[in-house]
Amino acid sequence: MKRNRWSSDDDDSEEEVPRRSRKDLKDVHQPLEVEASSSAASASALPPSPQRTVVRKGRPSCRGVDNYARIGKIDEGTYGVVSKARDKVTGDIVALKQIKMAADICKEGFPVTALRETNILLALQHPNIIRMREMVVGSTPDKVYMVMDYSDNDLKRVFEKQAATKHPFLSSEIKTLLQQLLKAIDHMHGKWYIHRDLKSSNLLYDQGVLKVCDFGMARKYGSPIRSYTHLVVTLWYRTT
């Protein structure tokens, strides 16, 4: 061993440490690789962690029409048949309107007119507008019903009875009915809806309360107002 001036006498007693080759260094790290491989093997032997299951809540399904007992047929229009029915649970008397479907419902789908009327009735909540309670379904896809509040008469029938008995409305009663009608129209127009088929048979009357019904031809409008077809209302109620 070569000595220098900083070396001491004790350095002679120490043995020179030989340099380690790359192979020796590799052998030194070998236990670490074995340990890592054993850890990986033990990890692979563990059971897989359970996967996270996402449960999505679906929309509530409609009730069946069998929850109502039909009493009799009221009327039949262009877009459906209306019957008088009784709720088997609450005993309430309701109007059950069966929506007319196309012959091939799989191709045609749900009628646009019925869908439009349903959305309008849900948007218009007013004491002088007919209220839709719910939608119910039958045993087949082509049997869909709208459940609405029931009324014994409409103004057309009331007028006919009054003409037969010679007992028309008093002036105060006419003012009250007109006020209710204007309130309903004001509410519709405030929500940007137009009825387009106002007539006496579409105005329900029960114990002095008037309610607008049959929104099959109603539309939502905006600004600027676009043009609509003129042949919408009943012939005898059209204006020039």
Automatic annotation (TrEMBL):
<dbReference type="GO" id="GO:0004674">
    <property type="term" value="F:protein serine/threonine kinase activity"/>
</dbReference>
<dbReference type="GO" id="GO:0007346">
    <property type="term" value="P:regulation of mitotic cell cycle"/>
</dbReference>
<feature type="compositionally biased region" description="Basic and acidic residues">
    <location>
        <begin position="16"/>
        <end position="32"/>
    </location>
</feature>
<dbReference type="InterPro" id="IPR050108">
    <property type="entry name" value="CDK"/>
</dbReference>
<comment type="similarity">
    <text>Belongs to the protein kinase superfamily. CMGC Ser/Thr protein kinase family. CDC2/CDKX subfamily.</text>
</comment>
<dbReference type="InterPro" id="IPR000719">
    <property type="entry name" value="Prot_kinase_dom"/>
</dbReference>
<dbReference type="GO" id="GO:0080090">
    <property type="term" value="P:regulation of primary metabolic process"/>
</dbReference>
<dbReference type="InterPro" id="IPR011009">
    <property type="entry name" value="Kinase-like_dom_sf"/>
</dbReference>
<keyword id="KW-0418">Kinase</keyword>
<protein>
    <recommendedName>
        <fullName>Cyclin-dependent kinase 2 homolog</fullName>
    </recommendedName>
</protein>
<dbReference type="InterPro" id="IPR008271">
    <property type="entry name" value="Ser/Thr_kinase_AS"/>
</dbReference>
<feature type="compositionally biased region" description="Low complexity">
    <location>
        <begin position="36"/>
        <end position="45"/>
    </location>
</feature>
<comment type="subunit">
    <text>May form a complex composed of at least the catalytic subunit CRK2 and a cyclin.</text>
</comment>
<keyword id="KW-0067">ATP-binding</keyword>
<feature type="domain" description="Protein kinase">
    <location>
        <begin position="68"/>
        <end position="240"/>
    </location>
</feature>
<keyword id="KW-0547">Nucleotide-binding</keyword>
<dbReference type="Pfam" id="PF00069">
    <property type="entry name" value="Pkinase"/>
</dbReference>
<keyword id="KW-0723">Serine/threonine-protein kinase</keyword>
<keyword id="KW-0808">Transferase</keyword>
<dbReference type="GO" id="GO:0010556">
    <property type="term" value="P:regulation of macromolecule biosynthetic process"/>
</dbReference>
<feature type="region of interest" description="Disordered">
    <location>
        <begin position="1"/>
        <end position="60"/>
    </location>
</feature>
<dbReference type="GO" id="GO:0005634">
    <property type="term" value="C:nucleus"/>
</dbReference>
<dbReference type="GO" id="GO:0005524">
    <property type="term" value="F:ATP binding"/>
</dbReference>
